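Hi there, hope your week has been kind to you so far. It would help a lot if you went through both lines with me. No rush at all, and the record is pasted right below:

***
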Amino acid sequence: MKQMVSPQVIYEDNHLLALNKPAGMLVHADATGDRTLEDWGKGYIKHQYNKPGNIFLTPCHRLDRPVSGVCLFARTSKALPRIQELFRTRQVRKVYYAIVMERPAELTGVLEHYIDKGEPGQPVSALSRPSRRHPKAKHATLRYELAAEMDQLFMLRVMPDTGRPHQIRAQLAAAGMPIRGDLKYGSSMKPDFDGIYLHAWSLSFEHPVKHIPLTITADPPQTVAWQKLAGFMEGEGSAWED
């Protein structure tokens, strides 16, 4: 069994804590009883600041278990509803990177689907249009661009406009670009680490208490594929091969 990589603290102040979540780690507790990122964060605060008693720490959004990257927590009851409102009203800019199995036919594009969660534990459905058979399906959009291409690795920069469950995974798969290692959504290649090749690179928003612009970024996992392409993440140019 592979040893879990430890989370990293990438931002903290009196109101917020941001962690780089390792792929394979839960954010919230589930039926497995496995230790969560929330548990780790509470332990960190308790030890770092010698805090007695219960620790207030609440995740502000979610990342799927096999996904790595930025995960933001509220440290105070003052910050929590404010940051939740920023997410709800789409005032948080989210940037992900995904290494996909196929080169996109269009180097940039917008994907629009209707996401139906379906049964617990099953893949969600990304429908091309509303359907009476799926009355609970919710509208989902994302923008993508080919950020790098090297050694048959195709890395997309993905900017979701909505935050539906498994949205990026399902939408890219529906567009013929399943994420490398994501067997649940059509990858033909088994994962070579404890997750899939989807990484939450950055969150940008106005600090809910200090009211200053804030961008938090997280380095990708230390796998061969990620490290080949890490230099071409946001702000570093492009690496397309004609």
Remarks:
- The chain has one domain: 8-232.
